[in-house]
Amino acid sequence: MPDDRPAAATHRLRIEPAGWELSAPAGLTLLQAARAAGIHLPRSCQNGSCRACRCRLLAGRVAYRVEWPGLSPEERASGEVLPCVAEPRSDVTLDVPGAHRVGGPGQEAWPD
User: Fold this and answer.
1) This protein's superkingdom (predicted)?
2) Which domain holds residue 47?
3) Is the pLDDT of residue 1 over 80?
4) Residue 112 — very low, low, confident or very high, per pLDDT cuts 50/70/90?
5) Cα(85)–Cα(16) distance, rounded to whole angstroms?
6) CATH, residue 42
7) In a domain, 109, yes or no
8) Of 19, 30, 35, nearest to 60 (Cα)?
9) Using CA atoms, how far apart are residues 17 and 34, in angstroms rounded to an integer?
10) Would residue 81 count as lying in a domain?
11) Contact by Cβ (8 Å): 80, 55
């Protein structure tokens, strides 16, 4: 269910196991914040239905842009999250083993 409480101007997003920390401005999803910082998270549809971006929320709170993201109640209760439709409501730590930086040697452009 969407969280109608106002978001703070900026929260911190930490990506594990890499240990990267970045800003997650209000109004951006976790996926958008990571991309703006040059970090590629696994993704596909970007609307919460394909589950390609699914990862584990280690700490923090999120609110979903869609009423029913593609997670079962059990998955949500166990800490699964969809960064493509989740906005931070506090500082957040995600476990995303497939995350990598973009723009380094041999990575000139964003992967499709």
Assistant:
1) Bacteria
2) 29-97
3) no
4) very low
5) 19
6) 3.10.20.30
7) no
8) 30
9) 14
10) yes
11) yes
